[in-house]
Amino acid sequence: MGSRDGVVLEVDAVRMRYGDTDVLRGVTFQARRGEVLVMLGPNGAGKTTTIEILEGFRTRSAGGVAVLGVDPEHGDERWRARVGVVLQSWRDHAKWRVRDLLEHLAVFYRPYVGDRIQQPWDTTELIELVGLTDQAGAKIGTLSGGQRRRLDVAIGIVGRPELLFMDEPTAGFDPAARRDFHDLVHRLADLEDTTVLLTTHDLDEAEKIADRILILAGGRIVADGSPDELTRAIAGEAEVRWTVDDQRFVHTTTESTKFVHELFKQHGDSIGELEVRRASLEDTYMALVRRHESGDAPTGVLTLSEVAR
């Protein structure tokens, strides 16, 4: 397996077994340069295990993996300099100051600067990018939880990685910090051409930042597509609600635009409180997970046409 046609991450039938327990049961997907992938799934679905295999921190039981054209089990330091990692938690270096730690880490990337590896971020620019300018001189042990997560992101991107892995990066973020983080992800993907793979439990966050969403359940990818594609595939019907003369009506249809047009032809200005509601990503996610847990889902990776059935 190797990097080709813009594919920077290739996962083929990966399995992971601990003793008699299969955690991953044939995970397959790809990611392209500059793409933002969000992996969703209930606790125990295998999200963190998948990420750790791709980062080279865990040895898979079977299957093929190519990260930037390299098997992560055999990735050397030059390969690792092209990959960024934001762990779920990292509590070391409490006595270091923010600026000092980032400048120290940047030093390790400079020997690998070349055709594929850019210069590390300028420390002042990086600190501003993640929103820690006021804390640049603060000791890490004094940072709040949200500030600490911002620093974790800065540590992950200090070397300007081509591919960035983030495991629940916004845990502990307030709404303003989460919005800033979303802007940062879009900047990395759009301006730096960075490929991002992150896990989250926040479905609203996934819908806002993902180019593609992977839903993992029971150790398998059970759906793969854009937020809009997944929502339309699982629920082609829309629910139309309206009132006429203070009477409330509800109708389910697969052709909401045509139905609303006919509704206005029939009732005109008498219609009030009109609402057309399609399934949300949360509805889609819960339907897929419930379907898997009930045993109704087929094995292997589902295509969008299969999800729609």
UniProtKB/TrEMBL annotation:
The UniProt entry, under Pfam families, shows:
ABC_tran
Task: Please list which residues make up the signal peptide.
Answer: none
| Places the protein is found | Cell membrane
Chief subcellular site?
membrane
Keyword match Nucleotide-binding = yes
* Example of a GO MF term: ATP binding
Keywords assigned by UniProt?
Antibiotic resistance, ATP-binding, Nucleotide-binding, Transport
The residues covered by the ABC transporter domain are: 9-243
Which family is annotated?
Belongs to the ABC transporter superfamily.
Q: Which named protein is this?
A: ABC transporter ATP-binding protein
Q: What taxonomic ancestry is recorded?
A: Bacteria, Bacillati, Actinomycetota, Actinomycetes, Mycobacteriales
